[in-house]
């Protein structure tokens, strides 16, 4: 997930959902998408793996430097830079442009496995996150309705990673690098933001049962 975890936490814990904030704002969206666009464009125009990798890394470097010069928080740009760097190294060592996307697919598989495991043991990851955000801790586990909501919300999150793998892995195996790059962009930040909205819709209605209060004393 190329998303600011703290921003995602603020969105899930808020009373309203902002799609603009979910994509990291227009600048965050551009920073997340530009290296991939540069990679695909260079691959289509030039081919090979060296020029596309160099193009993606160069664009990412410009974005990070721009953040530093403007003295704005470079957190999102740096997190994206790490992903680009790992993909670039993988592609360069394998000598294959499609290798640029392999680390991201492994990361999606790891997220999917982690979420499914959390659901299987009765500790859905969305419930853990929401418990921390609300200051509820683990009390939500004592409420069956709340647990079901968090299980369903976690399932929605897992479905996003599963869908990415189901669509992108066959493209990787078929060596459809340009198509894979385009699909990865579409299934990146936009799909994550839409999924986060779905998780928020489910999680916002999952709350602890209201505490019962003693009735006021009756006057005679």
From TrEMBL:
<dbReference type="InterPro" id="IPR016566">
    <property type="entry name" value="UCP010219"/>
</dbReference>
<feature type="transmembrane region" description="Helical">
    <location>
        <begin position="185"/>
        <end position="203"/>
    </location>
</feature>
<keyword id="KW-0472">Membrane</keyword>
<feature type="transmembrane region" description="Helical">
    <location>
        <begin position="105"/>
        <end position="132"/>
    </location>
</feature>
<feature type="transmembrane region" description="Helical">
    <location>
        <begin position="77"/>
        <end position="93"/>
    </location>
</feature>
<feature type="transmembrane region" description="Helical">
    <location>
        <begin position="152"/>
        <end position="173"/>
    </location>
</feature>
<keyword id="KW-1133">Transmembrane helix</keyword>
<dbReference type="Pfam" id="PF11361">
    <property type="entry name" value="DUF3159"/>
</dbReference>
<feature type="transmembrane region" description="Helical">
    <location>
        <begin position="37"/>
        <end position="65"/>
    </location>
</feature>
<keyword id="KW-0812">Transmembrane</keyword>
<protein>
    <submittedName>
        <fullName>DUF3159 domain-containing protein</fullName>
    </submittedName>
</protein>
């Amino acid at each position: 997930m190329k998303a600011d975890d703290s921003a995602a936490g603020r969105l899930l814990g808020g009373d309203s959902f902002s799609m603009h904030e979910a994509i990291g704002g227009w600048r965050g969206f551009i920073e997340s998408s530009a290296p991939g666009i540069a990679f695909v464009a260079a691959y289509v125009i030039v081919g090979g793996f060296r020029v596309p990798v160099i193009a993606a890394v160069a664009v990412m470097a410009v974005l990070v430097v721009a953040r530093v010069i403007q003295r704005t928080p470079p957190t999102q740009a740096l997190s994206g830079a790490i992903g680009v760097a790992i993909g670039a190294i993988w592609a360069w060592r394998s000598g294959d442009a499609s290798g640029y996307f392999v680390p991201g697919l492994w990361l999606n598989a790891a997220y999917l496995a982690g979420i499914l495991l959390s659901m299987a043991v009765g500790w859905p990851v969305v419930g853990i996150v929401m418990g921390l955000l609300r200051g509820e801790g683990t009390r939500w586990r004592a409420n069956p309705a709340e647990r079901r909501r968090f299980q369903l919300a976690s399932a929605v999150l897992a479905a996003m990673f599963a869908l990415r793998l189901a669509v992108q892995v066959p493209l990787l195996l078929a060596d459809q690098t340009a198509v894979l790059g385009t699909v990865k962009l579409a299934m990146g930040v936009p799909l994550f933001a839409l999924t986060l909205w779905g998780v928020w819709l489910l999680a916002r209605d999952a709350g602890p049962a209201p505490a019962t209060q003693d009735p006021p004393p009756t006057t005679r």
